[in-house]
Amino acid sequence: MTLSWLVICAGTLFLNSVSADCNFTSQTVTCETSGKNLSNIPTNLYQNVTMLNLKNNKITLNDIDKEILQSFIKLTELYLNENMIIVLYNNSFCNLTKLVILDISSNRISTVHKTAFAGLNQLSVLNLSYNMITQLDSYTFTSLKSLTALDLQHNSLRYFHIKSPFKLIKIVLAGNPWTCSCDLLDLQIWLTASSVTIENENNTICTFPNTKEKCSIKTAAIQPADCKTEQASLENTAASTSAIKLKSSAFLTARTPNITENNGTHAELPLPGKSWTFLAGVLGFVLSITLLIFMAAKCPTWYRYLISYSHRRLEENDSEMFEQEFSADMSSFPTLSDTNNENPISLKKIHTFVPGEDGFIEDKYTDSYATEES
Fold first, then answer.
1. 315 contact partners, CB below 8 Å, separation of at least 6
2. Is the pLDDT of residue 208 over 60?
């Protein structure tokens, strides 16, 4: 019981400490929470607050902060300067439809997403000064139909493309490293043609190139004709590069064979290089050698037959000599007898060899011997 009372008392003291910084009038509620080392926007503020000062804290405007801000639908002034915001993400203030003044200066903002200020239909004053913004597009401010004052001083802007008309009354651009080249031409034309007031114009000067250093960005000599020539040259170069890429792609497509996959679509195969041809040759050579070694090892009889085989054609004058030698050999053979001690079988006289018409010697011994055996 004692613990619960302590919790209630602590909560009451905390709420009182927050609400003590809020001033109430019949129409507005102003809350001052600056310099309190806050890392997030407090959740226990009054929902009907109209002016919220969160200056000099450690707020990063993360997803939690954006969700908390959406509950302050009556907010008309929001001060988030001197915090630790790095990126302004899309729809960071989307539900603050009544917001008129937004100050997010002196942070560390380097990137502003295209729809970061979407939904701020009543916003009139936007302060983005003293940040580290390097690039901005006019489309970022398209949704700000009521914007009259824009402060971009002391950032890192080199150019600012104006692609949509602004109805600004005042703009602050001093303290940026402006490059007075063709990239700055549309900003210069807009500054000259519109009725906008450039605050601190004497310090809104060119930094590059050296020939135009310290010249006002509004009056620096940038010739539209030269920019058109440069733009045409760049477009022609880009077109030529695109055409070369298209031709290369078409050539590769024509040379690449198509295969049909299981799902019926055609997939393109890359062209084989010379390395594949070399690899196929080496593989064929290795397989051939392996096959020859296998045949030599497993078929020695064939091997010996092929090595020892020698065919020579007999001459006609060699027949008498061969007959004499063969007769001498046959006379030296003993009479053969079979195992059953039957009458001995004697070999008859061999007929002489008669040369055939084709030039070879006819072996009549073979025929005679075969006849007696039968």
1. none
2. yes
